[in-house]
Design a protein that fits this description.
Elements lengths: L5 H11 L4 H8 L3 H9 L6 H10 L4 H5 L4 H13 L1 H15 L9 E3 L8 E3 L3
Helix pairs in contact: 1-3, 2-3, 6-7
Length: 124
């Protein structure tokens, strides 16, 4: 389960490679403020910039892509927009999490009948 954001992963890899923010930005042809915004999660890189980051940080592109959560978030927004009940349910869960009344649990496998693959349960 991914626990850190894309920006945090890039920052982690940049530190490991002993690269300054300015040095990495210059190496891949973007501004330092833009890279800073990426690391802080305020902006997201294009596919081209993500590929350049992967190359400069000596990691496969897929390593960085697994931390990019934009697609699931867009799907969630689409679901909430399509059904007001889902939107209300999601807002309720967010309020409970923010209020400390609910915590997300790690996914666990629920055993199924013999020979069947189990379902994944995301307990909260």
């Amino acid at each position: 389960m991914i626990e850190i954001s894309l920006g945090q992963r890039i920052h982690e890899l940049r530190d490991k490679a002993d690269l300054s923010l300015r040095g990495l930005a210059k190496r891949i042809g973007i501004s330092s403020p833009f890279l800073s915004d990426i690391e802080l999660g305020r902006r997201f890189p294009s596919e081209e910039i993500l590929a350049k980051l992967a190359g400069a940080l000596n990691v496969p592109l897929e390593d960085l892509k697994q931390y990019d959560t934009r697609a699931p978030i867009a799907d969630l927004k689409r679901l909430m927009d399509s059904d007001p009940k889902l939107g209300f349910a999601f807002r309720t869960v967010v309020e409970k999490v923010n209020g400390g009344h609910l915590q997300a649990a790690s996914p666990r496998k629920i055993p199924g009948p013999a020979g069947a693959s189990g379902r994944i349960h995301f307990g909260i």
